[in-house]
Design goal:
By secondary structure, the chain is an all-alpha fold. Helices cover 72% and strands 0% of the residues. It has a domain of 200 residues: Orthogonal Bundle (MetI-like fold), CATH 1.10.3720.10. It contains twelve helices and no strands.
Length: 289
């Protein structure tokens, strides 16, 4: 008897069709592409050294030399903004990737095995969800200390629970499908059934959630950096830039406005991209548009 091939949830051209129907998604893709390219080519795009201090140019307003002004140490805000994109995107992507892998594995395990295993995993998820995301991240970051690695771990822990729930629900339905039953009849083990037959048919839901929750991870990173639990100074991060500018908000508005706009545009781009991905995998949404 030939091997059983699991059906794929979405067609290869579904994403392109969704992008053509949802024109706002192109705005999100364009914004995100600009931000990513700015982060990648930061050493060539930044007009000044983001860490170079010159007290003679302290709190300079936007001008021809300093397009977005300078901070209280005379550092160029535009250069720090460009380099700050590196930290925000790195933290958001890596933290969500870790949360996606761990959460999806736990969700598939809970949905497939059921019983006591399901109760234990979902009990842990309920505990994580009982804490607000920012408060849980604050607790973990405070215990681990301020560093880039600890910040990623703290945010990843806060984002695991949603992925567990999103992965568990379709797993419960998929494990009763004919192709899974056929694989079980052929003697396939649980790991193969979960990894080869079930995972490809629910991974699209997880990817959509990842794009949406990456925006949440970037907001959490900015919030933790604002209260001093992010990447230690003098590294440039959008949250730390807002915190530094908050002390001079009445005299130097540009210190808080421009990093806030950067966060806003990044979150908007990720949300628009997530909506397009959701439309691509949800037939009901595609038919309504």
């Amino acid at each position: 008897m030939s091997a059983i091939a699991a059906p794929v949830a979405a067609r290869p051209n579904a994403l392109w069709q969704a992008l053509c129907k949802n024109r706002l998604s192109w705005l999100g893709i364009g914004l995100l592409l600009v931000i990513v390219l700015a982060a990648v080519f930061a050493p060539w795009l930044a007009p000044h050294d983001p860490l170079s201090q010159n007290i003679a140019y302290r709190l300079e307003p936007p001008s021809a030399e300093f397009w977005l002004g300078t901070d209280s140490y005379g550092r160029d805000v535009l250069s720090r903004l460009i380099y700050g994109a590196r930290v925000s995107l790195l933290v958001g992507f890596v933290a969500i990737l870790i949360a996606m892998c761990i959460g999806s594995a736990l969700g598939i395990l809970a949905g497939y095995v059921g019983g006591v295993v399901d109760q234990l995993i979902m009990g842990l998820v309920d505990v994580l969800l009982s804490f607000p995301t920012l408060l849980l991240g604050l607790m973990v970051a405070a215990m681990l200390g301020a560093s880039l690695e600890n910040l990623i771990i703290a945010i990843a822990i806060t984002e695991i629970a949603p992925f567990v729930r999103v992965a568990r629900a379709p797993t419960i339905a998929l494990k009763q499908r004919d192709f899974v039953e056929a694989g079980r009849a052929l003697g396939y083990g649980p790991l193969r059934l979960m990894g080869v037959h079930i995972l490809p048919n629910m991974i699209s839901d997880v990817v959509v959630l990842g794009s949406l929750w990456m925006a949440s991870a970037i907001r959490t990173e900015a919030s933790l950096s604002f209260i001093g639990l992010g990447v230690p100074p003098p590294a440039a991060t959008w949250g730390s830039m807002i915190r530094e500018g908050f002390e001079n908000i009445l005299d130097a508005w540009w210190l808080t406005v421009f990093p806030s706009i950067a966060i806003l545009l990044t979150v908007l781009a990720l949300n628009l991209l997530g909506d397009a991905l959701r439309d691509a995998i949800d037939p009901k949404l595609r038919s309504e548009r």
